[in-house]
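Lecture notes, continued. The same structure-token format from the folding unit now serves as the input rather than the output. Read the line below as a description of shape only.
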């Protein structure tokens, strides 16, 4: 199983601190702020989406 990474910059999720975690029907939904400025949305340790990309 590949290590979950930021799809934008490739930063491993394990190096990012979880900002907030919310329980849901699918499992724990976590949000992490990546060094590249994106918010990574993860469910059960898998990145399911990103949001809040820094505009440059
Ligand atoms: Zn990133």
């Amino acid at each position: 199983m590949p290590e979950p990474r930021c799809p934008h910059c490739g930063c491993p999720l394990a190096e990012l601190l979880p900002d907030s975690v919310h329980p849901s029907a699918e499992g724990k939904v976590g949000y992490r702020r990546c060094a590249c400025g994106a918010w990574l949305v993860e469910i059960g340790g898998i990145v399911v989406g990103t949001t809040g990309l820094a505009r440059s």
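Point for the exam: The CA atoms of residues 42 and 48 lie 5 Å apart.
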